[in-house]
Design brief:
Belongs to the prokaryotic/mitochondrial release factor family. It comes from Cytospora leucostoma. GO terms for molecular function: translation release factor activity. The protein has 95 residues and is α+β, with helices and mostly antiparallel strands. The protein has one domain: Double Stranded RNA Binding Domain (2-Layer Sandwich). 52% of the residues lie in helices and 17% in strands. It has a three-stranded antiparallel β-sheet, covered by helices on one side. Strand 2 and strand 3 form a beta hairpin. The relative contact order is 0.11. The mean pLDDT is 87.
Amino acid sequence: MRATPVLTTSPPSSLQNKTNSAVQLKHIPTGIVVKCQDTRSREQNRKLAREHLAEKIDDLLNGDNSRSAIVARIKARKKASAAVKVVKIQEIRKG
């Protein structure tokens, strides 16, 4: 993994351009690159970038069994269940 501090490139960048707080991480074996400029602290951005990189690597290696895919399936199931409940309540009110 290679870490590189870079200048931020967001629209209100007048304050952010004065510091190299953005971090770019590259996972060399896979070539995945992640850039984070969420905070003004380089250490916090580095931590967040590592988390994003770990998530992307997990998605690449595990596919449908990755953590983010499992969480997405659970959310979709809950949303579908809530929709069914709404339909049932509406039918009861009409009935």
